[in-house]
Amino acid sequence: MSLWCTRTTYMGFAVRTVDSELSGVEQYTAEEGGLVRAIRGRDGSISTSFLPDSTGRGLEPSAASYDLSWLTSPALSISGGGSHVVRVVDLFAGCGGLSLGVAEACRALGYEMWPVLANDIDARVLSVYGLNFPEAELVDDPIESLLDGSCGDALTENEKILKRRIGEIDLVIGGPPCQGHSDFNNHTRNDDPKNELYLRMARFCEVVGPAHVIIENVPGVERDRHQVAQRTWSRLSDLGYRCDSGIVDASRIGVAQRRKRSVTMASLEVSPSVTQAEAEVSVPTRGVMWAIGDLVSSESDSMFDSSPRPAAVTSDRIDYLFDRGLHDLPDSERPDCHRLKRHSYVSVYGRMHAELPSQTITTGFGAMGRGRYVHPTERRTITPHEAARIQFFPDFFTFGDAGRTLLQKTIGNAVPPKMGYALGLHLLR
Residue 113 to residues 41, 77, 86, 93, 99: CA-CA distances in angstroms? Predict the structure, then answer.
């Protein structure tokens, strides 16, 4: 469909007013030097943004082409620019995956995302957030340093100070620690006190009253014996928020990875739908090589672009897979801890399928024994750069000069930015 438009410019980005209508939420058209993405708002208005072609090959007008050019872009202003500012607080922020996705949703809508505050107890990971969002106030203390009252209680003096300091907030996002809810722990940490941190999201809404809220976690949070998710939803409803929850599969929205997350959205302004948010940006499944196929293998001195040097036995196992054209290592070739015991982790010691999404990227993506993390076509495990791409982090996002352990922790624990984009777009458009 041809888009007739006029162009103005904000902070280097072309912003267009389009005279035609869209059949869906997103529409893509080719323009000399790149692609135009048009977004249809709830009121029928259309916002557009231009993305230069970073591939150098020319782009077909599609979501896949746009996303790939975004992923491979060496330089792009994260905050964007526009006449409307969206003020965001990111709790349990990690390196800022959700914030990055929300920033891209704002850019798509012609808004400017302003990161007001980010909190995480891991100062090293939070420093990565600061590298990419230098405007944000960073708080690397426990969340209780900001919110020391309980849901339903009167605001404490500390919380009153917080409310005055940060002012009006449009959107609060966060992913409370999920280890106690994860299926990987065999439910041995159901009583983990960190599980209660989910309720801090509701308390923040009591204190600050943001217009919109996004909370993400592992699917197991909905089965928590203390019902932290259900109690949070109930409290948000009591505060006047319209709420919805559901499971979002990252592989259905363009991430080359199978990663399911429990999502709660709440709003004082719209009636959110998690199912609809996913459907609005749903695309055909993308394989691993779609995300990393342009990354050239080399013996790089960069920690970011190199994989760990494997032990001899690991090299032998990788060779076994490639020499026989396999993706799964037979039990006979596995170590005793997997060969002699019943387990459900069939993907460990596996090789990725080039045309399929990867398994969930975790902090162990550099080790063959931690999952299906052997490169589809090369005899090695994936690099941090490749893991970041599979997590949907673009090349213009910097992870600083972190060592391998910190890189794996930062990338593996992050929320894919495309998820933040889908949810943010749904609430803000």
Answer: 17, 11, 5, 16, 9
